[in-house]
Design brief:
The complex is a heterodimer. By secondary structure, chain A is mainly alpha-helical. Chain A has twelve helices and no strands. In chain A, 75% of the residues lie in helices and 0% in strands. Chain A is elongated, with a radius of gyration of 24 Å. Chain A starts with 22 loop residues before the first helix and ends in a 6-residue tail after the last helix. The relative contact order of chain A is 0.11. By secondary structure, chain B is an alpha/beta fold. Helices cover 34% and strands 24% of the residues of chain B. Chain B is built from eight helices and ten strands. In chain B, the strands form two sheets. Chain B has a six-stranded mixed sheet, sandwiched between helices. In chain B, strands 2-1-4-5 form a four-stranded antiparallel sheet, covered by helices on one side. In chain B, strand 4 and strand 5 form a beta hairpin. In chain B, helix 4 packs parallel to helix 5. Chain B is globular and about 50 Å long. The N and C termini of chain B lie far apart (43 Å). The chains are: A mainly alpha, B alpha/beta. At the A-B interface, helix 9 and helix 10 of A face strand 6, helix 4 and helix 5 of B.
Chain lengths: 281, 261
């Protein structure tokens, strides 16, 4: 952010046009010509070809390791029965509710602990100790507390999202560059204006990064929450497929989870880039 | 017009210590300075001589260990819009446009929205940035960023203005254009300026009075006055300025072991 550039006035202003320092830029010509939106397709095609090759060779047990075409059939079957769309919407709904609760609390508590010594002392170490507890370990507690209904799912997801969003917000607030505070105060801004117009925007890149992680974690903990005590949702459908040893359905569901996660992450990524447009990281 | 009777800065026997492992270290020995309203004072010295420490104390970012700093008789108790600051790193808010940055400074005046906007635009026009209002700091060059910072600081209507090597990160050409601009804006607003630099020519082009500092512990070793008409140019120094330059360079060079950072 606070990079001191040595530029002259006459240089045309350029900001977003900074050279891309991605992997593509460092690869030789062949690698570079393959850059762009085609890359994921090439990688997926490569893995798919190996998968198809192994399946076609007949050297693996089809029940344990289904062929791509069997997985496509299972996908079609679930889609035709309508369970896929229903499970997906139920699961995404749970993830969304859990995320909203966890993210709201995470940002709120992070703003408090990040800038207020008292809250930091009261809550900081406790929340730090809570962070290593995996979401799945909370499922039994959640079921005892909230039953096997929606409440326990929302709780597990919200909890996971909360800790990550809190952590990032807290750190973002702590590392607000001192020079912005100095500038704000010497320009006569009140503490309230300083908080709203300087501290929060300065921490925003961290907060937004935390929210993006939170979205990913909401989808991850969702499955943990649904694996026990659910009667719908992608996680439940996976569990059901296990009982009938339907590895083809499992694969289809796992692929759906992966695709949903990737799409949601891309959407969040685009939104977050707009939200903190000045951060050209 | 703002009268030049405002902006008397008194640095009344100020000493500053920093805590260290073996007790406090004196960063600035007892220093007494009086900056007359509307004057331009430069402080020059090698790094570590306490010049930024002194500036931070005047800005209210740092409490003196001894003595007191007063602006128009009122003790400095913390950062205050009466004492504007321009930082070397610009300190623009990257989430606001150039206009938004200037508006931020005007907000405390509680102006109606239209007037706020008009005054912010006028402030940017004054530093030659008309038409750049909607640009974000990340889209501006170093010189343009510092112009926005100058506009923003003057917009808050400071009586005194502190500048800590504000043009240190700019190339020589941009820097000399910034000197002209600063001279022009300063003459229009007549704030009392305290300007920190380690560039001798910069001090000679800008200041009415130059204090030369020496480190370990930081103190003022010599004071030179200049009354050459403005605008001045480093390419056309008169004999007095050339003599002053030689004297300052001697002072900075003369005590290498004591002046080194």
């Amino acid at each position: 952010m606070a990079v001191v550039e040595m530029m002259t006035d006459r240089r045309p202003p350029s900001a977003a046009g900074a050279p891309r320092a991605g992997i593509a830029a460092r690869l030789p010509a062949i690698g570079r010509s393959l850059a762009g939106p085609l890359r994921p397709a090439i990688s997926l095609g490569f893995v798919l070809a190996i998968w198809a090759g192994v399946s076609a060779s007949g050297s693996v047990n089809e029940t344990l390791f289904p062929a791509p075409w069997t997985v496509v059939e299972a996908f079609g079957e679930m889609a035709a029965q309508g369970v896929l769309m229903k499970d997906l919407s139920v699961s995404l709904g749970r993830a969304a509710v859990g995320f909203l609760i966890g993210a709201t609390l995470g940002v709120a508590v992070g703003l408090a602990t990040g800038r207020t010594k008292l809250f930091q002392i009261l809550l900081g170490p406790f929340l730090t100790l809570m962070r290593p507890i995996p979401a799945i370990a909370l499922v039994p507690v959640a079921i005892v507390w909230f039953g096997i209904g929606e409440g326990s799912k929302h709780f597990v997801i919200a909890y996971t999202v909360f800790l990550t969003v809190w952590f990032n917000t807290h750190h973002g607030m702590q590392y607000v560059p001192e020079i912005y505070i100095r500038a704000s105060r010497s320009l006569g801004a009140s503490r309230l204006r300083e908080f709203g117009l300087v501290v929060i925007p300065a921490a925003a890149p961290h907060i937004v990064a935390g929210l993006r992680l939170g979205v990913a974690l909401a989808l991850l903990s969702l499955v943990a929450a649904e694996l026990t005590g659910a009667s719908s949702g992608i996680g439940y459908r996976l569990q059901e497929a296990r009982q009938y040893v339907r590895t083809d359905r499992m694969f289809a569901l796992l692929i759906v989870l992966g695709l949903v996660g990737a799409v949601v992450d891309q959407i969040v990524h685009r939104i977050s880039r707009r939200l903190v447009h000045w951060e050209q990281a | 017009m703002q009268s030049a009777t405002r902006g008397l800065v008194e640095i009344d026997h100020v000493a500053i210590d920093f805590p260290g492992k073996d007790g406090p270290t004196r960063a600035l020995t007892s220093t007494a300075l009086r900056l007359e309203p509307g004057t331009f004072t430069a402080i020059i010295g090698p790094s570590g001589c306490g010049k930024s420490t002194l500036m931070n104390a005047v800005g209210g970012f740092l409490a003196p260990s001894e003595g007191q700093i007063r602006v128009d008789g009122r003790p400095v108790a913390g950062p205050d819009p009466e004492v504007g600051v321009i930082f070397q790193q610009y300190a623009l808010f990257p989430w606001f446009t150039a206009l938004g940055n200037v508006k931020f400074a005007l907000r405390r005046l509680g102006l109606p929205r239209r007037e706020l906007e008009a005054r912010a635009r006028a402030a940017l026009a004054e530093v030659g940035l008309a038409g750049q209002e909607r640009k974000y700091p990340g889209q501006l060059s170093g010189g343009m960023k510092q112009r926005v910072a100058i506009a923003r600081t003057f917009a808050a209507g400071p009586k005194a203005l502190l500048m800590d090597e504000p043009f240190g990160a700019l190339d020589a050409q941009t820097r000399s254009r910034m000197h002209e601009l600063l001279t022009q804006v300063w003459r229009a607003h007549r704030a009392t300026v305290l300007f920190i630099t380690h560039d001798v020519d910069e001090a000679l082009v800008l200041a009415d009075r130059i204090h030369v500092m020496s480190p370990a512990p930081g103190r003022i070793v010599e004071t030179l006055d200049l009354d050459q008409p403005r605008p001045r140019s480093a390419a056309r120094f008169d004999e007095v300025q050339l003599a002053a330059r030689a004297r300052i360079l001697d002072l900075l060079r003369g005590e290498p072991e004591r002046l080194a950072a």
